[in-house]
Specification:
There is one protein chain. This protein is an alpha/beta fold. The protein has ten helices and 15 strands. The strands form three sheets. An eight-stranded mixed β-sheet has the order 10-9-8-11-6-12-15-14. Strands 2-1-3-4-5 form a five-stranded mixed β-sheet, sandwiched between helices. It has a two-stranded antiparallel ribbon with strand order 7-13. Helix 3 packs parallel to helix 4.
Amino acid sequence: MNNASPIDVAWMRRAIELAARGIGSTHPNPVVGCVITGRDGHPVGEGYHEVAGGPHAEVNALRMAGERARGGTAYVTLEPCNHTGRTGPCADALIEAGVSRVVYAVPDPNAQAAGGGEKLRTKDIQVEQGVLQDEAEQVNYVWLHSVRTGRPFVTWKFATTLDGRSAAPDRSSKWITGTAARADVHRKRAECDAIAVGTQTVLVDDPELTVRDANDQPVGRQPLRVVVGDRPIPATARVRNDRAETLLLPTHDPAEVLRQLDDHQIRHLWLEGGPTLAAAFLRAGLVDQIVAYVAPALLGSGFSAVGDLGAESIDHLRRFHLADVTRLGDDVRLTLTPLGGK
C-alpha cells in the first residue's frame, strides 16, 4: 500500500518492533505485533504474540485497550487469523471489541487461518492491507518461508579461519573464534527450532547442540537436535543426554531431511554439520541463509568449512548477497543470502 498515511506507517512500524520480540519463542507460530489506537488516534493498547499456545498479538493489545478500542483502529503485522486452534480467531476478537478499522501488513499465506480480513469486511469494518508489507515480511521471514514453501528455512552456520579452515589436521576445532562469537552462536541457536549435524560430527566432536549460557549451562527453550546419517550413534554421545530432544534421521537426502522436519512443524533449521552435510544442502539448493564466523587466524592446513560442490572452474563459483557484517570482539559475523533471495 504505497499511499499509506504517515500515521499508519508510524503505528505499523511500532507493531513490527513489537513482533520482533517474539522471535525464538513462538514456534511453530508466526511472530506478530499489534497496536490499537482509540477514536482520537492515540495509542490505547499494544501487544505481541509471546509464546505458542498463549494469546495472540491482537488479544494482548485489546486487553490493554479495553473499552477504549471501540471505534478505534488496529494495526497488525499479519492478517488477523480466522481459525480456532489453541486460541480463538483474532478476527472475532476485533469484531467483538468494536474496532472500526483494521490495517494489516501481510496477508496470511496459511490457508487454515486465512480469511480474517474478509470476515472483518462482512462486519462493516474498514480493512486495509499492505502497509509496510516488506518490513513486516522481513521480521517474519522464517515462518512465511516455511508456510509458503512447505519446508523449513535453512541457515548454515560455520566458523572458519581466514584461510577457510574449520578444523586442524587432527580434527580439533576448539576454539577458532572468541568468546563473543561463541556467545552469539548460542543466541542465534535460541531463535531456531532445530539444530542439525551429520553422524561424522557427532562421532568426532561429540557436540551437545544445546543453547547454553556463559557458564556452559543450558538455558531457555531447547531446539530439537537432529542427527543426519545412518552410522550408529553411541548411547554415551552427548546428543543423547536429557538436556534436549533428539531426532535421528538415517538418510543422506537433504530434501528428505526437510520433509521429515516439516512433519515435526520445524520452521527454522540451524545447520551446524561438517563440510559433507553442508555441501549436500548447498548442492541441493536448500540453504536459505549463511551465517559465517570468521576469525583473524590462519591454519594453512586442515579441513575446509565445506566439501565438494562440484565446481570444475571459476565459472562454477557460487556467489551470495552480503546482507550483514557484524564485529564480535576480534571476529566477524557475515550473514549471506542466495542471490535473488531475501
